[in-house]
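The records we work with from here on pair a chain with its fold. Each token is a code from a learned vocabulary of local backbone shapes. A record is reproduced here so that you can trace the correspondence yourselves:

_____
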Amino acid sequence: MLDLNELRQLVTFADLGTLAKVAEAEHLSTPSLTRSMRNIENDFGVPLFTRSKNRLTLNETGLVAVETARRLLAEAEQAVRQVQDFDQRRRTLVVKACAPAPLWDLLPRLNAAYPGMTIESHICETERVQASWEHGDCDIAIFPFPIETGQGTVREFLHEKLYVCVQPTHELAKYESLTFADINGFNFLLSSELGFWDALCRHKMPASRFLVQPDVFSMDALVASSTLPCFVTDYFTSWRDRHPGRIRIPLTDPEADVTFYLAQRKH
């Protein structure tokens, strides 16, 4: 029976050229390596080496054995990874959400309900969430609309409404309500990883440009120092604390008033 450790030593011998170098690299004695090479030769049942005084070299068959050993070692490593990945997947809940707020609301609940599980979460565009759900790549998915599925349960989860947030001196501040058509053409500050909201704003405001900020600290700093408008939602009850001095104006488009639905796969 071929031994993986001995096969690895054979490959190392082929790479380094001498048993002495292999012994140094593997922290083994030369006699121990000599026995390993003899064992490998016996396992294959054919001569693999040319032996001369104080010299061991691979013959043509030995070179073929080395390539076979490389493949076997690679396959063994892949097999170990597959088993480890399977075990990790069993202990991991994968969540794909189309927007950040439902995810922020859900994650503490999942951590409390599944203390022994790893929670892996992603914010994606709606199409990617749907594809992941249909392909079985996630356990929980959050959509901006109800879906029909035989793979689990679907329930209404969270409601969120979008607002424009501006300085009192901004020209939009005089309005009590706005539409996407009203703000199309104005430049906006925009957070990254907004999923559904990002796609909606870009679709509804093709004439606008967006200064996208990759993290909340950069975003808050720019909102505080800039006159550019931004977006907030009613999920943030403390938005005044985050953006002091600004006012928020509701968007009346139906698309700006969203109910999110949570789909959970049966186990």
